[in-house]
Fold:
Amino acid sequence: MDYIFEGIEKAFQLIFSGDPRVIDVTLRALYVSSLATVIAILFGIPIAMLLALKNFRGKLLIKGIFNTLLGIPTVALGLFLFIIYSKAGPFGFLGLLYTPTAMILGEAILVLPIIVSLATNAIEAVDPDIMNQAKTLGASESQASLVVLKEAFAGVLLAGIACFNRAIAELGVAQMVGGNIAGWTEVLTTSISLETQKGNIVLSIALAIILLAIVFGITITLNLLQWKGLAVYRRKMREKT
Amino acid sequence: MSYIAELKNLTKTFNGVKALDNVNLQIHKCEILALLGPNGSGKTTLLKVLALLQKPTRGEVYFADTKVSNQNIEQIRLKSTMVFQKTTLFNTTVYNNIAYGLKIRKYRKEEIREKVANALKLVKLEGFENRQAKNLSGGEQQRVALARALVLDTELLLLDEPTANLDPKNAAIVEEIIATANRELKTTIVIATHNMFQAKNLPHRIALMTDRKITQVGAPAEVFGKLSKTLASFAILENSFNGTARATENGTTIVDAGQGVQIQTTVQTSGKVSVFISPEDIILSKERFVSSARNVFKGRIVEISDFGSIVKLKIEAGKIFTVQITKRSFIDMGLNLNMEVFLAFKASSVQTI
Structure:
């Protein structure tokens, strides 16, 4: 048991001493996951708007596909991407395999179903009259759609957080298409896996603590912001009455 | 040209089911036109077609002398605005709600601030700018929705049952605002209602709607005079009863509505009549109490409908009576289904046709 406590103690020393490798791996993990989330949101929100607000043939099928892809095993997706990125694959000529770009695109594909499914649900939950209400106040089709998106903001924000957390915490895609090359494609999850296999438990614990701190930190901060916003509003209301 | 909008041979179907059947209607400038008809008669669909939110299946919509088409629909839509029966406010402040249409029309910030303040004054909600719209009471929300429409000063204002879910106090305020907007801002207003008394007092003209058609258009006196019996028979009015009236010695009239229900009214009449009692004029109590009300009935609650700040109850007392009370009263009295209650209303609250 002692080695666990010793590991945790040393891990904190590593974190607070500003160990260059720990910083490098952490920043890369944040960079890859953030960009992947942004790309997924840029593509996912318009798809979600279309699925939630328009009626067309095949809509249910597309929704079903995205819902199914929510549970895709990351190793399977990693393998699929490895094949298409590899030299013999259809996108081999791009030379993306074992680059941060390959990881960003891979993570974006992985989290796209999350943003599409959750944002579609959030947008569908908005009162259907909101769209007509905006239109009758003079909004064009696109302006009215934007109003609906604003009404669904809390749900869409939650979908964005879920995307980021999934991207930063997954191993399969990052390992398969990134290759865990030190100083180049190494991120938190791949390093934890590698260092644990090498027996370097202390570094693994340090990186795991950082990973957990990021995931919990972001979720808790956003919850607190929402809660604080509510508290400020309640105080204002009390002052008025 | 004396009309602002016109519907020609208009039919609207939803999945093959007709919601409007060959409707022809002209809306005159500066008038208040009431669409009077029971639920499901097509009033809301007609308003939505006029608001250019729903395209007709057949027929044409004209705004002034311009035929509405796919090319000009967004432009023409700016000339009218609609307030829905179910209040639909954006999840933001009262100010942002009312300012929305003005921002779309690219008004300057100072102008928007001034117009919003004026609109709030008109609906008697001064100083409400920074309140969260969705935290207001039902009546206040409906007044914000009205302010949001009025602030745009559109040529045509479409109101779908604007007082249907309001308590009497808020309903009176809303009716006053509608009359003021028409009188002072010269706004043309089309109001859908199934409230016969609202239709009698507020509008210049009434369009009667039954079975998805317009069956009669005319001034209130004309419509109510000629078609009183038809009105009484079609209107699914709350607390409308047909019966035989006979005068009493003390100058009042007793109407025998059947099933042991005898209603006393101050209106002097005889023979076959229809009587109406507004749901908000009926007092509800759990025990019989002494009062000046001439009409007291014992009944049982058979239906409870929650409308936010108000609750409507259906009471079986020989006939089915609808009673409207505030949510607070409902909670304070601890009312439940099948509970025995007493209804009371004054003879002067009973109106006859």
About this structure: The radius of gyration of chain B is 22 Å.
